[in-house]
């Protein structure tokens, strides 16, 4: 079965700093999703990547899918306290969405 | 409108109670999902409905009973739950069942506590 591994598990950054979260799959990715979750709340859809080498941006968040389609990165530029939360990568696995363990981001003002 | 609503927001129930969780979406999505999320863990898929028919049951105990009365509504009926069933229950919907990657939109969740 497919597994997703995220790194780091947690991250504390100073406001204004850049950061990167990685998601590595044990199998080829046919659809890679990034979500954000505030504690105890629902998941907010950020971006979906499908093609090798694809890159998408939304505000200060950029996500890339590598050419081999087994790794994705999420990059936040000039982090703000509003970026704090849990970032989850998800993969389409034969009709099911499976998730990585999540990366908890804290942004210190 | 990309909103999925869930009620109630919080629920406390005894092990002998019967209760229901409700989920609603008006995006015209034809696939709907129930997930269970324990603290500090990612969501785990429970059930998938596609065109109002149950298409995936992830070996969920029968004390959880899903129902899809129409294309906009999804219920989860709860009966004789155990304390370990306490969790955040999330509902999601997507345009259709994934196969070619359609993003899922999640509701805010119901925080369930079983006493």
Précis, in short:
By secondary structure, chain A is mostly beta strands. Chain A has strands at 4-7, 10-14, 19-25, 32-37, 43-49, 55-58, 61-65, 71-76, 85-93, 96-99, 103-108.
What key phrases describe this protein's structure?
heterodimer, A: 109 residues, 11 strands, 58% strand, B: 115 residues, mainly beta, seven-stranded mixed β-sheet, 0% helix
What order do the helices and strands come in, and which of them pair?
The complex is a heterodimer of chains A (109) and B (115).
Chain A: E1 4-7, E2 10-14, E3 19-25, E4 32-37, E5 43-49, E6 55-58, E7 61-65, E8 71-76, E9 85-93, E10 96-99, E11 103-108
Parallel strand pairs in A: 2-11
Antiparallel strand pairs in A: 1-3, 3-8, 4-5, 4-9, 6-7, 7-8, 9-10, 9-11
Chain B: E1 4-7, E2 10-13, E3 18-25, E4 31-37, E5 44-50, E6 53-57, E7 64-70, E8 73-79, E9 87-94, E10 105-106, E11 110-114
Q: How would you characterize the overall build of this protein?
A:
- The complex is a heterodimer of chains A (109) and B (115).
- Chain A is an all-beta fold and 109 residues long.
- Chain A is built from no helices and 11 strands.
- In chain A, strands 2, 4, 5, 9, 10 and 11 form a 6-stranded mixed β-sheet that branches. A 5-stranded antiparallel β-sheet of chain A has the order 1-3-8-7-6, with no helix packed on it.
- In chain A, β9 (85-93) and β10 (96-99) form a beta hairpin.
- The radius of gyration of chain A is 13 Å and the shape is globular.
- The model of chain A has no long low-confidence stretch (mean pLDDT 93).
- With 115 residues, chain B is an all-beta fold.
- Chain B is 0% helix and 56% strand.
- Chain B contains no helices and 11 strands.
- In chain B, the strands form 2 sheets. In chain B, strands 2, 4, 5, 6, 9, 10 and 11 form a 7-stranded mixed β-sheet that branches. Chain B has a 4-stranded antiparallel β-sheet with strand order 1-3-8-7, with no helix packed on it.
- The radius of gyration of chain B is 13 Å and the shape is globular.
- The A-B interface holds A 30-31, 33, 35, 40-45, 48, 50, 88, 92, 94-102 and B 4, 6, 33, 41-43, 45, 48, 55-56, 58, 88, 90, 92, 97-101, 103-109, 111.
């Amino acid at each position: 079965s497919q597994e997703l591994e995220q790194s780091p598990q947690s991250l504390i950054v100073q406001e204004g700093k850049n950061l990167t979260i990685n998601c590595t799959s044990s199998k080829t990715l046919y659809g890679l999703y990034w979500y954000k979750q505030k504690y105890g709340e629902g998941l907010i859809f950020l971006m979906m990547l499908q093609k090798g080498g694809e890159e998408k941006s939304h505000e200060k968040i950029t996500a890339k899918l590598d050419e081999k389609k087994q790794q994705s990165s999420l990059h936040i530029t000039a982090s703000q306290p509003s970026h704090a939360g849990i970032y989850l990568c998800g993969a389409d696995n034969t009709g099911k969405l499976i998730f990585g363990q999540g990366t908890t981001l804290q942004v210190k003002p | 409108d990309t909103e999925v609503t869930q009620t109630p927001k919080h629920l406390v129930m005894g092990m002998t109670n019967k209760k229901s969780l409700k989920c609603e979406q008006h995006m015209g999505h034809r696939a709907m999902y129930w997930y269970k999320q324990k603290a500090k863990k990612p969501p785990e898929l429970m059930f998938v409905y596609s065109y109002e028919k149950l298409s995936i049951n992830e070996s969920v105990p029968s004390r959880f009973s899903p129902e899809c009365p129409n294309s906009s509504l999804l219920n989860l009926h709860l009966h004789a739950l155990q304390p370990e069933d306490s969790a955040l229950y999330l509902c999601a919907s997507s345009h259709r069942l994934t196969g070619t990657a359609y993003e899922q939109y999640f509701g805010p969740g119901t925080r369930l506590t079983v006493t």
